[in-house]
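Record filed below.
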Amino acid sequence: MSTSKPLASAPAGTHAIVYGGSIAGLMSTAMLSRHFERVTLVERDVFPNGPMPRKGVPQAQHIHGLLTRGMDILAGFLPGIREDLVAAGGEFLDVVESVAMFGAGSWRPRFRSGVSAPSMSRLLLEWVVRQRLQALANVRILDGREAVALKTSGDRTRVTGLQVQAPGGGQEETLEAGLVVDASGRGSRMPQWLEALGYPRVEETRIHVDVGYATRLYRKPPGFEPGWRSLALSPKLPEERRLGIIQDIEDNRWLVTLGGWLGDSPSTAEEAVFLEFARGLPQPHLYEAIKNAEPLGPIHLYRFPHHQRRHYERMPRLPEGLAVVGDAFCSFNPTYGQGMSTGAMQAEALGECLRQGLRGASDRYRQRAGQILQGPWALATAGDLGFPEVEGKRPPGFGLMTWYGNRFQQLAGYDEEAMTLFARVQHMIESPAAMFSPRMVLKVLAVRPDKAAQTPGPRPLAASTP
């Protein structure tokens, strides 16, 4: 196990509380351990003693991606966490070289890009991070407790703590703190709590996409070496709607997710429905890989009705000593894999605001978080708004941007420089603005779709199966 001592940092206060044991909550706890004498993590569930699912995270058994930027931030909060993850069975793989990707109607080139990301289950990631937090002397994990209300100053301008109780009732307990962080996810009750305190209702933006997906765990077939570690088959939006992913995870297993937009997803958790959906993907490779593989559990279904962004940055006022992170602030269509990494960026931003002192940190943070969300929100909603059926305000120039994005995808189908840049933007290492450099614009204008179609995909699976 890596060092359990928090990194030295300027103290901002005596006690901070994070409620919600999500990835965003865990990262926020790790960050706050560097700024407060004590940090308490409150979670409604009782944390399992191992990488196992829990009721409060129904999507935990599906594929998750911690992007490169998110991993870098986590490693800054908890030095040595990469080594801990590898010791627990995880891996770090080049996101271009190790993944066979089919998107925008063609296979992507594969080569060493220098962009690596973790390849493991969310269950393992959470478990390893929780172990690190439990080892920190100034962190207390209070699970099996439900947050029921904020405690504030008499004039309600400052949050002074959190009231908690056992789920379902019981005697309430008040925890005093100089900062309370809401990491309770999409179902956060913060809007209602603030209204009860006399604050205006936070403005929300929702974009309904009706995404659904089904995930099953498989044993990787012995001797199966197709030349890729993971496989991603993406639709050509908006003409197609279905996707399929095989993610290589710890213990020689695969997580296999099938899904789609606007209700086009597996309708039941039946094996025949799952396999037939896989057979209907734009390429046969995923179906061929799993049709004779050994299932290791049931098929899990999940539905995501809409993007949800709460505009705390637009609030005319909020109480001091309060911050909202992760899905409680903004929840993205999970097929784009931005959620955990955006939560990491918010936790990092909160830490930067605390370096200027606790006074005013809440207002500084919510403005900064609003700025951080602009890029990921634009990327995540751009593809979905391309569906005529999806209701939502299209930004100025949406048609031109969609045309350019499609052309860039075609360029990435054969141009290694464009593919590397795409990976760096996707993993939040570079801003999307990098795609509009003069050099890239010239390449996009001269794109050759016929050349993208010539990029070879993985060799036939029949030649790879034992």
